[in-house]
Here is the input.
Amino acid sequence: MNFQAVRAIYLFEMARTWRTVMQSVISPVISTSLYFVVFGAAIGSRITEIDGISYGAFIVPGLIMLSLLTQSLTNAAFGIYFPKFVGTIYEILSAPISAFEIVLGYVGAAATKSVMLGLIILATAALFVDLRIEHPVWMIVFLVLTAITFSLFGFIIGIWADGFEKLQLVPLLIVTPLAFLGGSFYSIRMLPEFWQDVSMVNPVVYLISGFRWAFYGTSDVSIGISLTMTLVFLLLSLGVIGWIFRTGYRLKS
Here is the structure.
């Protein structure tokens, strides 16, 4: 294990966060706060409680997850795409460092930044509503697993993308809509039965449901199913990345 190489990649990516702190940290926090104020005020005046939880508190896990998904994707995708763009990816590939160590450095940094951002948003939300976390250990588990999983997914997108436009394509047109339709601002049980069944096709439902269970002990989907789906997505992402490094897909050309 080349810890020095992993450390170099990790620290380089983390340093990029502090150079762009306005874009990396402050902007997502402000956006999430605006979501919280607008949705909390507009909808919270009509829906006071869901499952015995005040609407303002109910949407906090969904808002954290929404930011976590998009930031994990964006950070990891840009992190690996930029070396491709400037040509330094060939130096990394020719260095005495394995594929696992490359992924560990880039994905580890992206996941760390996302978890930090999620905790900052959690602290910000606590200023607006009274929060309780019934299962703090599971909250951290879901937070970390989701950050790692979507950082791996973002790593795949960064390798697949051949332009800056494609880096934003999946987060804006796929992940964000899935997060909005995945129960971020409502309970799936509030929908008609047909749309409840349709919502089960959305993988983000399982992430948000499990994360909300860690806060309030209530969920739309069994906690076991939520955890299983998260792990399945993580393993699928690892499998795709393994294939990419075996074939050199968009890495060596």
In short: The two ends are 27 Å apart (CA to CA). The chain has a mean pLDDT of 89.
